[in-house]
Amino acid sequence: MSSSFRSEPMCLAQLFLQAGSAYECLSALGERGLAQFRDLNPSTSVFQRKYVSEVKKCEEMERILAYLVQEIKRADIPLPEGTVTPAAPPLKQMLEIQEQLQKLEVELREVTKNKEKLRKNLLELTEYTHMLRVTQSFIRRTVEIESYLYTNYEEFPTLESEPLADYSCMHRLGAKLGFVSGLVHRAKIDAFEKMLWRVCKGCTIFSYSELEECLQDPDTGEPTKWFVFLISYWGEQIGQKVKKICDCYHCHVYPYPSNSEERRTVMEGLQIRIQDLHIVLHKTEDYLRQVLAKASESIYTWDVQVKKMKAIYHVLNLCSFDVTNKCLIAEVWCPVSDLPNMRRALDEGSRESRASVPSFMNTIPTKETPPTLIRTNKFTSGFQNIVDAYGIGSYREVNPAVFTIVTFPFLFAVMFGDCGHGFLMFLFALFMVLFENHPKLQRSQDEIMKMFFQGRYIILLMGLFSMYTGMIYNDCFSKSFAIFSSSWNISQMNWQHKDMEDNPYLTLNPNVTGVFRGAYPFGIDPIWNLANNRLSFLNSFKMKMSIIIGIVHMTFGVVLGGFNHLHFRKTYNIYLVFIPQLLFMLCTFGYLVFMIIYKWLAFSAENSRSAPSILIQFINMFLFVGNGTDNFLFPGQVIVQRILIAVAIVSVPVLLFGKPLYLYWLHNGGQGIGSYRKGYRLVRRESEEDIALLMTHDVEEGNSALDTRHKDEAKEEFKFVDVFMDQVIHTIEYCLGCISNTASYLRLWALSLAHSQLAEVLWAMIMRVGLRVDATYGILLLIPVSALFMVLTVFILLVMEGLSAFLHAVRLHWVEFQNKFYAGEGYKFTPFSFQDISLHFDGYVT
After folding, report:
1. What is the pTM of this model?
2. Considering the domain boundaries, does residue 518 fall inside one?
3. Bridge-partner residues for 479, per DSSP?
4. Which residues form a coiled coil (predicted)?
5. Domain that residue 55 falls in
6. DSSP H stretches of helix in 317-372
């Protein structure tokens, strides 16, 4: 609990690592995650550090591993992932891993290149086969067209007995006929045809037909529709133009056989080559799959080991060498409780490396601000993240996350109070909690789902607290439920039938004997759901409840600030800051809470009409208005109120001038209040307050030459004006914040009202319609109506309203609660740990 209440005590340690055992020592430290290393070479470029070549080797191996993972995923081979991570390999094994990976990459690239070449050849032969098959149907059609054209001229003989593919006829004509055939993309066929017509001016015969089969696009690898075309032309010049146009449109051009016999021979050769390519390609793929399957067995181990090696060399680059270059010196922040574990890790690394001189460590004093370490588990990490989003806590100050575990879901539930909605939220969170070890939930790449999963315990508590406040409000999907019998008895009013017919509303008189039988055992009486003034009653209740919760919450924050002052031994802050702040809060708004509770207890239904207005009483308190004839809550109220106002007014100048004057007095050699803390001390040179306190510490502890010099510097740096202006700002902020923050807690009432009204509107507009339909069709109608009601409930009331209440609860903690005691000016403890290494392959892109 102490570790959660405050950050753990830290110390600065200096490690002396022998050059031969530094790698093994850091490996042992990385497995335990004990220390945060500091950069001792800030002025040295990253590329000029000693172990930059080893880091580059690790990055090269990571590149090869990424390529292997990509090929393994492409081959649909499962990637085994172990639950136990292998240790960082010894230095000798690093060269073996590098050699194996390089050899495997060369082999895979060569086999993959051959496979792609075989696939490309197979695709070309397949396209050639389809082209020959489709263009065979063009011959008869072309012969008929050409025969018709040539018979119109007397000087040309007929071509009825000779096919167009035979060149003997054209030789007799004295012209040279040529053919261009191939495949063109479906999207380019229209533009291709128009370009041929415009460039060749109609001196070509263009025939085309769409392939029924989808062939693979060589560029994209996706199945695509293709058109087979055959172009007949006369003359060399037109032929050159046709070929250039085909190149521009990226057509796949293949040679066209001159006669039917050649066509038959080419088709037979293509079929044999395609069969051979299928056999060779199948064997190549089998061999490639065997290589990848064998690589997949070791790739998890290689991946983890390479990542650990790279992390170790990165940390080694942060260390500095001594003058002999035989020893590495590192400075680390380490929790005081983990110092024995760190010594054991260094001893273990020295034994593994068989070093003649063991590595060792020493703690060194420092005045730098240590990092903040708060140990968390899977339950508390979500609440700690909410606090850390505001700011990492300063070293050793009170951690609000411990109290946020209770206050955050409670304030959320006050705004979201509905038993039914809370139960649905609880079930959703319970599902994620029960299956939290499922790989799909742990490795989900969806940002929204990842956010829900990380905050599953927060949602679980929000659902539980919402069920509790829903029972207090007596709300379940905007409907009340009677756990106990009502405390109101209508039969005792003795209403007649005529009274019910003449009056649309009847009033229950609690002063009539037997009508009101005492307070309802738990929550709101369900009879209020039938009352016409239900909203007015609930508004008054929730508004006063919000004020009470808010003032208690803020007062608790001020009290936690007092614990901070006690811990840091700033006794003067107890008298000059904490007590005046607490008195100001309690004498003003604390008195308001007292009046609310006193009025609830002192007045009943019999004398409720004579009860004074709390709001008027509170306003008159600050205006000093009131005389003996006014209606007061209790005797002597005016005197009490004037005393409280006087105390609150006196507290303001104490807050304003007390601390600056006291620090100024200390700066001029005054004796401090109480004893100052000895031993480790955090001093921030930029803080005027700490500079003044340092002088008092010197007086109490005794001054050395170094202390005297530091004291002289402190005298020069201390500025009373800066301290005074800082205190003025804090005083004004606190006094005005007490008013604005109290009003800010009214959002608890406003959002609770909005949530209940939205739920009531949703029930009235959807479910009530389905329930009022005749029984014959009502059952059929109720199913879609209920489904629509649940969908709107989830998306509007659970998701949208839940997000709104969540954000308002975050604001109340960050602004109204934490600013009373939480500075949040620290930085997080980030140890060198192998636990932060990703142990799965989702980060690799296929």
Report:
1. 0.79
2. no
3. 476
4. 94-128
5. 10-109+294-364
6. 339-353
